[in-house]
Write a structure and sequence with these properties.
It is a single chain. The chain is an alpha/beta fold and about 100 residues long. The protein has one domain: Glutaredoxin (3-Layer(aba) Sandwich), CATH 3.40.30.10. Helix content is about 35%, strand content about 25%. It has a five-stranded mixed beta sheet with strand order 1-3-2-4-5. Strand 2, helix 2 and strand 3 form a beta-alpha-beta unit. The longest helix is centred in the middle third of the chain and has 16 residues.
């Protein structure tokens, strides 16, 4: 399954799930984001007891500002609407899977 593209309309609904939701905050001009994106996509394709989603910070700066995103890529893991884990910068696939545990 592909990552869910988040926007102003679906963001709160997706992060409010009881299932952990990894949100990748990214931008098209960001080099490290381009390196991280295929890893995030691979995890989404493999699936698991989690949801994978992405927010383009250029298109939805209000969402990024709401969570104090100052650097990208930033990965936030939400559960029941609350941030339960965070990573800033490039991270390995194994590191992402650890965030989701």
């Amino acid at each position: 399954m592909k990552p869910i593209e988040l926007n102003n309309e679906n963001f709160n609904q997706i992060i409010s799930s009881e299932i952990p939701t990894l949100v990748d905050f990214w931008a098209s001009w960001c080099g490290p984001c381009k390196m991280l994106s295929p890893i995030v996509d691979e995890i989404a394709e493999e699936g698991g007891n989690f949801t994978i989603a992405k927010v383009n910070v250029d298109e939805y700066p209000n969402i990024a500002n709401q969570f104090g995103i100052a650097a990208i890529p930033t990965l936030l893991v939400f559960k029941n609407g609350a941030v339960v884990n965070k990573s800033v910068g490039l991270i390995t696939k194994e590191g992402i899977l650890q965030l989701l545990k």
